[in-house]
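User: two proteins, same treatment. go.

Assistant:
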Amino acid sequence: MRWLILSDVHSNLEALQTVVKAAEGQYDRVVCLGDLVGYGPDPNSVVEWARARASYCIRGNHDKAMWDPEVVAGFNYAARIAAEWTREQLTEDNLQYLRELPRGPLETGGFTIAHSALSDEDKYIVCEADVLEELRYFDTGLVFYGHTHSQTGHMTDECGRLLSLSPQLPRGRSRLALQLLPGERYLINPGAVGQPRNRDTRAAFCVYDDMRQDVEFWRAPYDVAATQSRMEACGLPSALVQRLSFGR
């Protein structure tokens, strides 16, 4: 089985459509690691796509913000304005879908998915200490997580030594494969579809092949200007519009 692993779509339909087209024929099922909404201009279209296509989807903090005011209260100004706007746009059916999304981590039968840390769904995994802490919480050999918007990964070998993975996909190169080795444990972030970071504007995602036991890191350039125009037309904060130009 080949799995398309998506995270942090953030209502960016242009980026999502580009990713799906780029990965066409490369996957059998779709997994979403949360944050379908927030920031971007097309929340209903993105949620409807996930409802129709995702075999597994868990909630992210921006999804939870659609029905939990305490989450919104913790956002910065731009994120809060975007969350409030998004809530007003969502249909009742789509809002109900977000409300019913399971909290991670979730075992899918061979690997584990989480929006952020396995120990805390709102915690960022940003350093080696965070990774070492998370190793206590999962039994499967492979975990996919999101939240940081950074395409990266970590692994431990049979001796427990920790190695960081930093896939380098220069302009013109769309994917890079990582062979998974028996006895080693992997914590992999596919990066963000809808608000890429790592100072790379291209949409990021992964494809996992559970037969070949490899993970491909992908980057796909999309029409950033089109998304920015839609955001401006919706009156979303200019800071959110501009950051898409810099991938941060």
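Protein 2:
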Amino acid sequence: MAHQREAIILGALLHDIGKFCQRAEVPLSKESIKLETILCPSYKGKNTHKHVLWTNEFFEENKFFFPIDLNIKFSENPRDTFLNLASSHHNPETIFQQIIAEADKLSAGMDRYNKDIEDESESKFLFKKSRLQPIFEKINISD
């Protein structure tokens, strides 16, 4: 399915867009906050990787910019929507969400010069100082 492939590609490219929103301290809606226990993994009893809440918020607030319906299901699993692909990469439930999780792991190896602080609960606000390096800087289309 063409829209399935497009959703996976777009979700893989934009899965960490929430990091920008989180660092800019964009307020979260009540709906996004309610997703914390679903989208965020838990570490030492606290939810981590909360940027996924801002990823969800970004897509919800900007859905009119995207050429696909963010809530359309593209598999038999009701959790396989574009919005869930992009937002569930730290707590994947489906094979398609696992693809985005793998893309995240691959890109994480490229964007960390210093020890990036993954556990936001322990670091409080130190993670906001870690430089984000877009993967697009590493793409060479001339060869």
